[in-house]
C-alpha cells in the first residue's frame, strides 16, 4: 500500500491533479515541548471552508469523495476508501473516507477506529516511519469537509509529540494531561490495545472529557483527535482560528501552519498558547475527582 501512496503522489503532482505546496519548517520548543512551525505562503490558494460550503446546502453534495477522484485513490475497502489529500502541504498526506456519506460531526464508530488504526499500523510498518492519525470534528475544530474522513501524516524525523512523554493519569479510568501544555487536552494511553471495543473505550475516555469541557462552557461540541499506536488525545475547541490562523488537530501536537511572515511571527510569539485561546485552559485535575460517568466528573 505505501508504495502506491508514493507512486500515486508523484504521478498526481506531475499531472497537476494534486497540488503540493512547498513549505519551510521551523523546529522550536514551547516550554520544553517539541513544536514545528511551518510557513506555507501558497496555502491561501487552497479552497477554504467558505469556498467548499458555498457550493451547496446539502452536506452530501459538498463532499469531494462521492466518488473520490480516481487518480487519488490508493485502496478501496468494503466500507472505506484510502485517498490522497488533493491539497497537500506535506508529502504523502492521505485520508480514510467512508464510502457512504457519514457526518464528520458524529463520533467515530468502533468500526471507524478499527479501520483507522489498521491503516496507521500498516503505514508505519510498510514505510518504516511513524505516522499520526487525526480527526477534526465540529465547526470549531478546523474541519472543512462534512463527509467523515480521518487523516494521516508522516511525523517529521526526530520530532517527539508531547503525549509520548506525558505521565500516566493517577487512575486507570482517567485520561492524562501534560502540565507543560497550557490548553485542555485529554490523553488515553493505549497499552497495545488492539481490540475494537477496547479502542472504542479508550476513545470515549478521551472524548468524554472534551464533551464535559464544551458542556461546562456551554459551547457546541468541537474537538480534535490525534492518535498514534501508543495514545489518543482529544482537545476540546472553542474557535477554529485566530488572526486568520486556522488550527486543526495537528496544531494540538505543535505542528502549526502560517500563511505569511506576519502570521509566523504571531505563531512564534504565542506557540501552544494559541490552543488555549482557541480551546480551553489546562486546569489541573481537581483533588477528589474519582470517576467519569456519562462524560461528567463525579466528586
Ligand atoms: P479538513 O479540512 O480537516 O476537513 O480536511 C479535509 C482535507 O481534505 C483537507 O486537507 C483538504 O486539503 C482535503 N481535500 C479537499 N478536497 C479534496 C479532494 N477533492 N480530494 C482529496 N482531498 C481533498
Structure, described:
The protein is α+β, with helices and mostly antiparallel strands and 299 residues long. It has one domain: ATP adenylyltransferase (HIT family, subunit A), CATH 3.30.428. 25% of the residues lie in helices and 25% in strands. It is built from six helices and 17 strands. The chain has an eight-stranded antiparallel β-sheet with strand order 4-5-7-9-8-11-12-10. A three-stranded mixed β-sheet has the order 2-3-15. It has a two-stranded parallel ribbon with strand order 1-6. Helix 3 packs across helix 4. The protein starts with a helix and ends with a strand. The structure holds adenosine monophosphate.
Number of helices: 6
CATH topology: HIT family, subunit A
By CATH's scheme, which homologous superfamily applies? ATP adenylyltransferase
Low-confidence stretches: 48-54, 290-299
Q: What is the C-level CATH assignment?
A: Alpha Beta
The largest sheet, given as strand count, sense and whether it forms a barrel, is: 8 strands, antiparallel
Helix content: 10-25%
Structural class based on helices, strands and sheet pairing: alpha+beta
Q: Could you say what the CATH architecture is?
A: 2-Layer Sandwich
Strand content: 15-25%
Q: Would you list the SSEs in sequence order as H and E?
A: HEEEHEEEEHEEEHEEEEEHHEE
* Shape by Cα distribution: globular
Counting structural domains, the number is: 1
The CA-CA distance between the termini, in Å, is 48 Å
Number of strands: 17
Q: Evaluate the radius of gyration.
A: 18 Å
* Heterogens: adenosine monophosphate
Oligomer: single chain
* Mean pLDDT over the residues: 91
Main-sheet strand order equals 4-5-7-9-8-11-12-10
GO molecular function, one term: ATP:ADP adenylyltransferase activity
InterPro entries: Ap4A_phos1/2, Ap4A_phos1/2-like, Ap4A_phos1/2_N, ATP_adenylylTrfase_C, HIT-like_sf
Protein name: Protein APA1
Pfam families: Ap4A_phos_N, ATP_transf
Amino acid at each position: 500500500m505505501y508504495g502506491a501512496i508514493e507512486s500515486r503522489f508523484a504521478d498526481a503532482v506531475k499531472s497537476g491533479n494534486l497540488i503540493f505546496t512547498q513549505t519551510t519548517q521551523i523546529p522550536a520548543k514551547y516550554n520544553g515541548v517539541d513544536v514545528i512551525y511551518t510557513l506555507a505562503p501558497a496555502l491561501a490558494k487552497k479552497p477554504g471552508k467558505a469556498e467548499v460550503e458555498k457550493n451547496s446546502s446539502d452536506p452530501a453534495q459538498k463532499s469531494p469523495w462521492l466518488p473520490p477522484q480516481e487518480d487519488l485513490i490508493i485502496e478501496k475497502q468494503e466500507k472505506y476508501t484510502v485517498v490522497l489529500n488533493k491539497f497537500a502541504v506535506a508529502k504523502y498526506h492521505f485520508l480514510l473516507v467512508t464510502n457512504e456519506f457519514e457526518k464528520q460531526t458524529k463520533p467515530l464508530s468502533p468500526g471507524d477506529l478499527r479501520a483507522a488504526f489498521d491503516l496507521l499500523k500498516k503505514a508505519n510498518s510498510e514505510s518504516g516511519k511513524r505516522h499520526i492519525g487525526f480527526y477534526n470534528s465540529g465547526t470549531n475544530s478546523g474541519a472543512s469537509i462534512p463527509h467523515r474522513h480521518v487523516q494521516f501524516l508522516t511525523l517529521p524525523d526526530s520530532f517527539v509529540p508531547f503525549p509520548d512523554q506525558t505521565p500516566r493519569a493517577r487512575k486507570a479510568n482517567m485520561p492524562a494531561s501534560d502540565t507543560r501544555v497550557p490548553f485542555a487536552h485529554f490523553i488515553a494511553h493505549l497499552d497495545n490495545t488492539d481490540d475494537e471495543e477496547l479502542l472504542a473505550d479508550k476513545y470515549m475516555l478521551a472524548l468524554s472529557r472534551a464533551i464535559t469541557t464544551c458542556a461546562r462552557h456551554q459551547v457546541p461540541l468541537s474537538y480534535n483527535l490525534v492518535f498514534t499506536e501508543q495514545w489518543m488525545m482529544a482537545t476540546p475547541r472553542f474557535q477554529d482560528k485566530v488572526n486568520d490562523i486556522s488550527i486543526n488537530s495537528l496544531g494540538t501536537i505543535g505542528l502549526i501552519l502560517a500563511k505569511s511572515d506576519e502570521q509566523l511571527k504571531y505563531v512564534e510569539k504565542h506557540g501552544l498558547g494559541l490552543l488555549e485561546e482557541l480551546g480551553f485552559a489546562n486546569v489541573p485535575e481537581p483533588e477528589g475527582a474519582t470517576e467519569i460517568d456519562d462524560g461528567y466528573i463525579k466528586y
